[in-house]
Each structure stands twice: as C-alpha cells, then as structure tokens.
Amino acid sequence: MRIGISGASGFIGAELCEHASQRHDIIKFSRRARGDKRLWSIRSKPDLSGLDAVINLAGESIMGLWTPDKRLRIRDSRVLGTRRLVEAMAGEGNTVKTLVNASAIGFYGDTGENLADESSPAGRGFLADVCQRWEAEAHHAEQYGVRVVCVRVGFVLGKGGAMNLIKPVFSFGLGGNLGSGRQWMSGVHVKDVAGAFLWALEKDDLKGPVNAVLPEPFRNAEFTRQLAHALHRPAFLPAPAFAMRLALGRLSSLLLDSSRVVPRKLKESGYRYRYPSLSSALMGCLE
Question: The whole model's pTM is what?
Fold first, then answer.
C-alpha cells in the first residue's frame, strides 16, 4: 500500500514511519517541500496522486503556555490543515480510500470518575472543542467514498515527547503528585500509538473514533509511584494545583483534569499491545 504521512518528523510520526516503512511504501508530507517530501500546509492542498491512504498527524504542539496566539495555532494547524487535505480528495481522480486522522482523548474533556469509551459524548473546554472540529473536518472525506478513522491518542510514553520533560525531574528525586494525585490518566507507549495507527489503516472494518490508550487507566499518584520506582528515586515533592494554575495558566488543565478513558474498539477488534500495562510501558521508556 502507498500511504502519505503528515507530521512524519514528530515524536509519533518518526515511530510510525519506522513501523510503516517495513510493510508499505510511504510518502512524507511537510510544510516545506524538499527532497522526497511533498508540500502540505493550512494554505495549500497536498498532492495526493498515487496514494492509497493518508495518515494525518500534523498539528502545532500543545506544549507551552496557551496564549491566544498559541491556541489559534493549535486549532488552525489541525482544523484548517485537515480541511485542505480533504479538499484534495474531491474529484474523480482521487485514489485515497482510507484516511486515518489523529485526534486526542482531550475530546472527552474532564471525565472525573466516569469511564469514557468511543461511544461517550464530547466534553467541554478548549481541547475538547479543537478535537470536535478536527474530527468533523476529517469526516467530510466520507462524501468522497473514503473510510475515516480518528485515532484519539492518550498521554504518550516513550523516549521523547512529554517524557523528555518528566523523566529528568524524577531522575533528580524531584518528582511528585500533580495536584491531589487522584486525577485519572490514560497513557500509552509510543510504539503502541504507532501500532494503533497501522492497525486502523489495515483493518478495513474499523471506522470512526478509536481510543489509543492502555487497557486500564491509572491515577496520577500511581504513575508517580511507578515512575519513581522504575528510576529508583524518591518522589515526595507534590506540585500544588494552585501553583500549577498560576504558573501554567490554561495548560494546567491538561495535567490536573481526569482522563479515565478505555480503548473498547481496539480491544474488541483484536489489537495486541506491545506494552499492555503502565509498568511495562514505563520500562519501555527506559530500555
């Protein structure tokens, strides 16, 4: 299969390209066309000629202070970028039959103590709104006969991404609970994120939302305990919620809200995790 991949140079994209290139012919997309990369931005439609499928990972990083300009870039890079992609699928010459579009479990907002699966409604807040708009743009491709899967990615564990910020803090014995530590987290190892995208690509009967998270969510306090144990370091310096809100503003919601999300559709479709538990995923970060 010949597939186009946007966001190929990112943390998830690089892992996905490594996996996908073993089974498929891949074409990478970039905001600047160079070498063997094709152009794709919020201002231009990509060249999808000869492609059987597209995996769309492109989007401004959510890390950093959520200033008005940052929030605009987070939203537009996803919503408008996906809109340009779908516009390129219009017309009789389109060969793309499958679109696997990234999304996030931020779709569900703060779940509190409630479990959320793919049938759960959208939540409230900035990320929930962005995810709804993002997925809506992707689903417009269905009018062109394209199968659409939206992979809602959880907190990604691995050698990169947010763990590059978290691991050094714990390595120096400065880790601790965030806020009360009772908020739920739904994580997943980056290799299983890549695996979920390829599974969605190759599993023809999968469509709609698919949660890419571990089979069991965990509380922040449990994440803190297990990471400290894996690194053989103490973790007794909690970050009070009020201090996080003062320092991080709206970004603090990403760390303090509950995300108690389960991967019902991945499990029911038979996906086999490489790292099926928090402990194994954390060890996978240290290998």
Answer: 0.94
